[in-house]
């Protein structure tokens, strides 16, 4: 009887191993299918973006600034200083600046709200009012556009005496 019992135990062990292997294979297959499905979604998203921008070969608008930091040096408190950030559209579609926000109410940006043609340049005018400001100033200016990199960060620096 003991040999019959050991044979049963061996058969049960083999059956359990088959079940474990089958479950493992199903999990692996689901993982592979899931990865493939996600890849297709990502590719579809890229293709949809290309269609919106004008086709596979289109670069879209591309913004390039001459400088990201404009240093005003030392200024006297109460002085209002105007400075410029020059930018270019290096892309192949019109560039539109949607908004420009300064990190402080003492800084007022102005820009041309018309689309900038490919290859053209324009200036963002920034007026800094140093009234009530003393010491080192480092003001963040956030530019939001339709460029491939939609957010650009500029800085205005000054030492107010």
Features:
161 residues, alpha+beta, 2 domains, four-stranded antiparallel beta sheet, four-stranded mixed beta sheet, 1 helix, 37% strand
Radius of gyration: 31 Å
What is the class of the largest domain in the CATH system? Mainly Beta
Helical amount: 25-40%
The CATH superfamily of the largest domain is Immunoglobulins
Q: How much of the sequence is in beta strands?
A: 35-45%
If you consult CATH, what is the topology of the largest domain? Answer: Immunoglobulin-like
List the secondary-structure elements in sequence, H or E. Answer: HEEEEEEEE
Question: Cα distance, first to last residue?
Answer: 102 Å
Mean pLDDT: 81
Report the major sheet. 4 strands, antiparallel
Tally of individual helices: 1
Given the C-alpha coordinates, what overall shape results? elongated
Order of strands across the biggest sheet? 1-3-6-5
Count of the separate structural domains: 2
Which class of secondary structure composition applies to the elements? alpha+beta
* CATH architectural category of the largest domain: Sandwich
List unreliable stretches of 5+ residues.
28-54
Q: How many DSSP E strands? A: 8
Describe the structure.
The strands form 2 sheets. A 4-stranded antiparallel beta sheet has the order 1-3-6-5, with no helix packed on it. The protein has about 160 residues and is of the alpha+beta class. A hairpin with a 5-residue loop joins strand 7 and strand 8. The chain folds into 2 domains: about 55 residues; about 100 residues, Immunoglobulin-like (Sandwich), CATH 2.60.40.10. About 30% of the residues lie in helices and about 35% in strands. It has 1 helix and 8 strands; from the N terminus they run H-E-E-E-E-E-E-E-E. It is elongated and about 100 Å long.
């Amino acid at each position: 009887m003991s040999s019959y019992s050991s044979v049963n135990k061996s058969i049960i062990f083999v059956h359990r191993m088959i079940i474990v292997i089958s479950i493992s294979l199903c999990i692996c297959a689901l993982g592979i299918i899931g990865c493939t499905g996600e890849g297709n979604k990502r590719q579809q998203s890229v293709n949809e973006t290309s269609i919106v921008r004008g086709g596979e070969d289109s670069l879209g608008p591309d913004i390039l600034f001459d400088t990201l930091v404009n240093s005003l040096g030392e200024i006297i408190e109460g002085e209002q200083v105007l400075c410029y950030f020059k930018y270019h559209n290096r892309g192949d579609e019109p560039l539109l600046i949607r908004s420009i926000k300064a990190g402080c109410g003492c800084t007022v940006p102005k820009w041309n709200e018309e689309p900038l043609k490919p290859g053209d340049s324009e200036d963002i005018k920034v007026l800094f009012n140093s009234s009530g400001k003393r010491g080192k100033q480092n003001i963040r200016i956030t530019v939001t556009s339709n460029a491939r990199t939609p957010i650009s960060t500029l800085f205005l620096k000054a030492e107010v005496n």
